[in-house]
Fold:
Amino acid sequence: MPFYYRLGTLPKSRHVQFRRPDGVLYSEELFGTEGFSGPSSTMYHINPPTQVHGWKPLYSTRPEYFEADVMRMRHIKTAPMRPSGDPVTGRVVLFGNADCEMAVCVPAEPMPYHYKNGQGDECLFIHFGTGVVHTMMGSLRFGPKDYIIIPKGVIYTMIFDRRKRAAEGEPAVADMPYGKFLVIETVNGSHIGPPPRYVSKAHGQFLEHAPYCERDLRLPEQPLTWNEHGQFEVRVKARDLMHSYVYDYHPLDIVGWDGCYYPYIFNIDDFAPITGKLHMPPPIHQTFEAHNFVICSFCPRMLDWHPQAIKVPYNHSNIDSDEVLYYVEGNFGSRKGIEVGSMTAHPQGIPHGPHPGTIEASLSATYTAELAVMCDTFRPLFPTRAAIDLDDPKYPASWQGEHFPKLRAGELKLNGIAAREAPALQVAAMSEHKPAAANTWAPNAPLPAATQPSKPAANGKHPRRAPAKPRRRR
Structure:
């Protein structure tokens, strides 16, 4: 994170004696990035953090991708996913590449251990459920629509509250006993943070044009310290393997820390959408970024207010990126057949845009209640077997059909004539759609006579003009 924070008890200076109540020195640890030239935090443990034992590999975490040579639109329906595993073992990777992995988790049981991702940063988006993440740097209470950013190397355990009843529109408790969340994690060693254009280059402060700021972030709080002895397992994801080792004391034994490297929460409802007179491009939704991918938030917002604005996204080819959207709630105006928990994947090189009929249907709208999380990657994303099993094979054909049904039905008039009442030749002429002067950038008003182009002669050549007579000086 770009700004300084502290929690717990600290000595006055770094690297000086700091003693426990029994007179023994606390164990200082520098928790740093980029060879200790990047953001870091300094922490003070009750016990030496190096005293661990029982190292052993558990299982591979390397995803296996399928249909890597197939390039088409995909619609992954995650709603039917059954509860499985805990908040770590239950993560089902659906897409990934050499930079990031995207997974969905519907945990079926609590996690009886602590966990550290030693491979990359994690962005957890809570779709359903509440609970608390106890980390080595403090506790973070979470709920629906929270982004939880957990930097690489942070030890934590994720505890969901068991659901007692399902609110309207939510899955049944039997189908989702704890909650559901989306996981986007780096696998290229980079870190997830605010886009650089949102923060000051000199001081790291959020700038005025940023769609969120420091006040919107929830930082770690107490409880911070567990002073317990026993056998505590910590699992570490690294080198595409899950490893296990054991502490003889509680791994969350830090009494204080300070610095600029820590976990935090940002709720998507606190994102302030950037709107415009005409449709704005996807970068205005950007919320976080890492090397070779970005994370965006499509939030409820006012729509474009130009009197002739097209309210849904224009057809576009993001020729350098693959685009995956996870649909959270609301009605996504440019899509048909999308449900809560849908994931759509649009690969680079293939144009995509509004579904048939959605352009005309959106013209009178002034507001959208859509809510979605998007991940754009600069390398192709590949699906796993789990994604293929949840894929809707009809989705690539969903753009076929009549895009302007009102025109065919005669409800839409062009030049005052209903399309179904016009002769076939007239309909063909109208389909050329020569816009009225008021709707063009340069009105088709006649040019002044002095600027009218000369008419060509019958032989196709322009007549030569007589040279202008020079003015006499007075």
Observations:
- The first helix runs from residue 358 to 362.
- Residues 5-72+79-267 form a domain with the Jelly Rolls fold (CATH 2.60.120.10).
- The chain has two domains: 5-72+79-267, 269-405.
- The CA atoms of residues 145 and 269 lie 7 Å apart.
